[in-house]
Amino acid sequence: MGKKERTKTGKTIGSVIKAIEVIEYIAYSEKELGVTEISNGLGYGVSATYHILNTLRECNIIEQDDKTKKFKLGLKLWQIGMLAYDQNRISVSLKPYFKKLKDLTGETANLTIMDNYQIVYIAQEESDSLVKMFTKTGAVAPLHCTAAGKILLAYKPEETQKIIMDKIELTKHTNNTIVSKEELIEEMAKIRKAGYGFDREEREIGVSCIGAPVFDLNNEAIACITISGPTTRFTEENKKKWIDDILRVSNEATNYLRVIN
What we know:
The chain is an alpha+beta fold. Helices cover 47% and strands 18% of the residues. The model has no long low-confidence stretch (mean pLDDT 91).
């Protein structure tokens, strides 16, 4: 994962942005990384990268292996992350609802939001099945090939949709991936009409997903509740029941948010 495209809304400090991008780069790696790997991945000089890493290490945000000299996230960052989770009103408030959805369907239930032209998984209840789908909390995914992404995009104002679609790349992940704006627009219209959306093996073969939006007081779709699992379990009979479950639970979640706000 390289640097993200960021929208500047005021004065910023470049070194802080670079430090955050270093943290993100390490976070999304499946292995510990060395200075050269990080500097090459982000396009920063080795010396500058080393100074950033050394500062983050001194603050216990990252840790360095004594033998390999490679870096990984530190315990302090995990502690900060847990505090952030506790302060995230949506994930805390809606936990009973996506847990209920997991219990009703038997599949992994996810809570996602849109951020920086992609979806972010902010909470999850894993399926109890031996064969199941799961995603790390904090992981991101494209809008055009995920149920949550298409749903959240579908409920944006038309002008906002155009801006977002001009920013994102409709990368092909499988033969089922939507790769044209026209097809994506048609898909969004179907979602708004039905009130729910699918991922039909559009990001990964063998994985399917169904979801529905959660609205706030202003009738804005601020989050999406989905279930994901092996396509083999997404039979027509199961999908019919699960759609009813998802619509009911997402409606309950919406009503709850409107009451507490």
